[in-house]
Every structure is written in structure tokens, then in C-alpha cells.
Amino acid sequence: MFLTISTTGNQERPATDLGFLLHKHPDKAQTFSTSHGTAHVFYPEASAERCTAALLLEVDPVALVRRGKGKGRGGAPDAALAQYVNDRPYAASSLLSVAMSAVFRSALNGVCRALPERAEAPMPLRIDVPALPARGGAELVRKLFGPLGWTSVEAAAVPLDEQFPEWGDSRYVRLALEGELRLADALRQLYVLLPVLDDAKHYWVAPDEVDKLLRAGEGWLATHPEQKLITSRYLSRRWGLTRQAMQQLELVRLAESDDLDVESIDNAVDETTDTEEKPVPLAEQRRAGILGALRSAGAGRVLDLGCGQGQLVQALLKDPRFEEIVGVDVSMRALTIASRRLKPERMGERQAARVTLRQGSLTYTDKRLKGYDAAVLSEVVEHVDPPRLPALEYAVFGAARPRTVLVTTPNVEYNVRWESLPAGQARHGDHRFEWTRAEFRGWAREVAERHGYGVDFVPVGPDDPEVGPPTQMAVFTMKHADGAAGPGRDHTAEPAPDSAAEPVGSDGTEKEANAA
After folding, report:
1. For residue 221, how many C-alpha atoms fall within 13 Å in the half-sphere facing its CB?
2. Mapping DSSP to helix (H, G, I), strand (E, B) and coil, where does residue 444 land?
3. In the chain, fewer beta carbons within 10 Å around the N or the C end?
4. 10 Å Cβ neighbour count for 130?
5. 3-class DSSP assignment, residue 483
6. What pLDDT does 65 receive?
7. 3-state SS, residue 381
8. Is 88:64 a contact under the CB 8 Å cutoff?
9. Which helix (H) or strand (E) holds 153?
10. With bands split at pLDDT 50, 70 and 90, how would you rate the model's confidence at 364?
11. pTM above 0.85, yes or no
């Protein structure tokens, strides 16, 4: 990735003052380590009449993949090839923005002790970015930079192949900006708008990104005609964060119009008093639904199959009616964490005797799992490769045969309601699939029919009239010899406990590892 900043001057105000403002000496080539590669700063030209500073970022794709842990560009499970074939070493993106903030931190803040008056004054600038991803094309580039005081905004589309013009243009442009601006303002604009135009970030967008956006956008974002698009893309379309940023920007605009401080007009709430009722996390709603179903079934001896880090086991231990609880998981690391959570060494003898943690694969039969009242597979089946589902089905319903089986799994139709989940992406990187309501019910009814169970369906979480609940639960009940359990019923109009609360976070936070 490559970016140059040029300025002109004279003997009285030499162009080489740019070195003071950037805190980088024009006679030196300097190298800086970043979290994803190496940044080089050097000056192709440096005279009193003209000075150019260049920032070259060499990206280490291996470090990017390792540090990203599956998040961001090229890290999705269905885009494994993008780890090897990508534009990251060449095209300006959030990687370049992060490098700028690290290498030119003082310049971004407008700080220059040697020449403070130069840092505060506009200066003739030219900025060139030879390869800029632009989702929206050259027209969007001009819409974003045009209102920011530049006298010239050139965005020339880069053809896919100059030898084959009929192939058309790529999504990249050559950007050249010219005008008189403060250096700090120009750098802040680039810091925000480079990832906005790329429309992708290489790191997870957390709530502190709102503060970063407001700081970098100070003085120009509140009145920008494309404010909503900039805010939404910068925050990776996390609508909750976008709303928060838009509200803050509106306060800034109102304060500037009345020549007031933001604090003086945003004083309606006493921050020492929490008047807002916090929503119940979906994981808690799911556990409440499972506990309610187990109590209704009269279960005393319970298997938690795919127990993960032991949250459900811990909840079961708090209710004395569950006299024996066995947690099973294939991951020893998950079982170790579960043991730390439960602290059996600190329990009384009777309490410790109620719980057992056991390693085992759910796709193999295990005679130790026979004879239990109930088994729970909470957020487990979606972690199993589809060809292995029949093996899991037989191990649980055919071999272990508990009287009651509870299965919860994400409802993929509800994913459109998750503000932090990009379209088409699964809730968890390890999910092999996510079922619609019809797909889950079809699978559950076939399983019940094959193994002599009846099945009911219960929503967990708010039951959206269009897309259903975020989690769907099937309650399997073994039929008596006369088939008394009867056919399954849908209880989609009967929400699980606390279903009116809004979900918090995305699925998959409880299961670090489940069935192999």
C-alpha cells in the first residue's frame, strides 16, 4: 500500500517544514513495525520549493490471518482462498488507516512543538493514493471528498486489464487530492474515508470505534452530506453503533449552530442513575427455556451433551430437583474451563456427587449414557458436519434413549435481525449449517418418527412475526407402548420465559467446542 503527501513552499516558508509537521526527518528513511506488517516513511523529494513524504505499508498476510482469527476480510470460512489471493498488500484500506494513526499520530492530532503556527494553518497539499478500493466507484469518491475543501478531486478508474479494455473497470481508482487544508484535517479525512470506500475492516468493530470516528470527524463529519453512509460503513454497518454515532453527530451540529458546548445541551440524563432496563441476553433466555422444559418433564437425571464451558451444568446444579447431572464434550479444553467454573473441589460432598464431567464424542454410542431421564443438545447440532448427523441421531435417540431430549439450534431466518451480523454470514465461525424453521422441524419430525418419540416446538427469545425466534427448540418425548406421547405440536405462539426481552450479542458464545 502506498500514499504520498506533497506540498510546495519558498525560501521563507520551505516545503520541508512538512518534515516537522509529520515528525519525520526528510533526510532519513524510517521503518516502523505495525501489528500486520512494516511501515516505511521516506521522502522521494525534499527541497524548499517542493517536498513529498511517502508512506509504504508492507502487509504480512500470514500475520493478518493469525491475528484476525477468522474475522474481517478474507477470514470467513467460505473465503479461505482470500487468505492467499487478495489485494491487501496493494490497495489502501483500514490497514493503511491504522498504520497512519501509528506513524503520524502527532500530525493527526495537529501537534507540532517546533512549528505550532504551521500546524494550525492551511497549507498547499497534494495527496496521491495509486490504488484505492472504491465500492461505489469514482462518483462516490468525489461525493465524499468534494465537500471537504479540496479544490481538485481526481478519481480515475483503474481498468481490469489495459490490454483488454472491453473487460471494463476494476473497483479501484487512482486518487489525487489538491487544495489548501490543515495537514491534520487532511490526515483525519483519509483515516476515516479509506476504510469507508473499501467498505471493509480487517478488525472487529467494537463500541470504542464510535469515539474514534467522532474524534477523527471533528469539524467536518457533522455537516457532511454523506454523513449517514460514512458512519454506517466506518462502523461496519453495526446499526446500534451507527445510531449512537449519528445521535452524537446531531448534538455536535446543534451545538455548533448555537455556539455552545455539546455537554451543555446533552444534560437531560443523570449518568449516575441507571433508568434503562437492560435486556436479557439470549444465552440466559435459552437456559431458562431449557430449565423450564426439564422441570415440566419431571427430569431428575440429566445429560448435557456438548456441554462446552459448563454454563448449563452450573445452572442445573442450582436446582436441587436435578439429582444427577453429566456434562459431556469432546474438547478437553472446554471441560477444563467447565471444571474451573464449577469448582467441584469447593463443593460439599453431596453437591459434588451430583455432577460429572466426561469426555466423549456425540457421534459414537456410549453405554454410560443410557438410562437418563433427559438429554440436552443446546447449540450443538449445527457444529456437526451434516454427514455425521445420522451418527449423532442414533447415538442419542437410538442407543442412549433418554425419556426426554431437548435440542436447541439457531433459526437462520432471524439472522437478518442481528445488527452486527453481515448478510449471509453464520452466527459462529464453526457452524456447519444453520436451519430455517421448516428445515429444523422437518429434521426433528423424521428423527422422532424413526425412534419412537413425539416432538413439540418451542420458540426461545422474541418470536418475530416475520422471521420467528432467534433460537428454536424441539422437545422430544419418548412414546409409550400405546403411543401416548402423540404427534408433535408447534407452540410458536407460546414464547419461552423472558421472551419479551431483546437479545444481546450473537450466537455461539457458549460453545467453544462440541461434537467432533
Report:
1. 33
2. helix
3. C
4. 17
5. coil
6. 64
7. helix
8. yes
9. strand 152-159
10. very high
11. no
